[in-house]
Amino acid sequence: MARYVTAIASQLAPEESFAYLADFANARFWDPSVSEARREGDSPIGLGSEFSLVARFGGRDVPLLYRIVAYEPPRLVTLEADHPRFVSRDTITVTAATGGSTVDYDALLAFKGLGRLLDPLMQRMFDRVGAKATAGLNNALNP
Long-range contacts: 50-54, Cβ < 8 Å, 24+? Predict the structure, then answer.
């Protein structure tokens, strides 16, 4: 299992930070590993909403379908993608802070089957990808 956890101070109000992050199609603007991202359907974002992403990981473009599996605005959203080789789960918690909000981001990548043997290597790769996404997210949340 690879995991990346970060906290970002945002100048945006909690409701604004939450709305931006719950719309996971925005990942293409702040995560340099995401080349494509779009919301599936046109219903309001909430529990069950889906987002199609293409992420570059390990030298490959990986298509992923994320689904919101927990949704408690404006505080918590969890998105999950179940790929044949791994499960990706992103949990985002937003809290009020002086001058805006704090975003706690917990990204988990759990490999299935023999892929679990690659966990130490994947952790190093995930750390690099996560650091770049953190920098992008910091820029997006502090316009």
Answer: 51/24, 51/25, 51/27, 51/79, 53/24, 53/27, 53/28, 53/81
7 neighbors 103 (Cβ within 8 angstroms): yes
Cα of first residue to Cα of last residue in the chain, in angstroms, is 33
> Phi and psi for 104 in degrees, rounded to 5?
-100, 125
pLDDT of residue 2: 84
Tens digits of per-residue pLDDT, 82-103?
999 889 999 999 999 999 999 9
Q: CA–CA separation, 137 vs 32, rounded Å?
A: 10
d(CA 54, CA 12): 27
If one counts the domains in the chain, the total is 1
Q: What is the pTM of this model?
A: 0.91
CATH number for the domain that contains residue 93: 3.30.530.20
Q: Which domain holds residue 46?
A: 2-141
CB 49 within 8 A of CB 39: yes
How far is 73 from 90, CA to CA, in rounded Å?
15
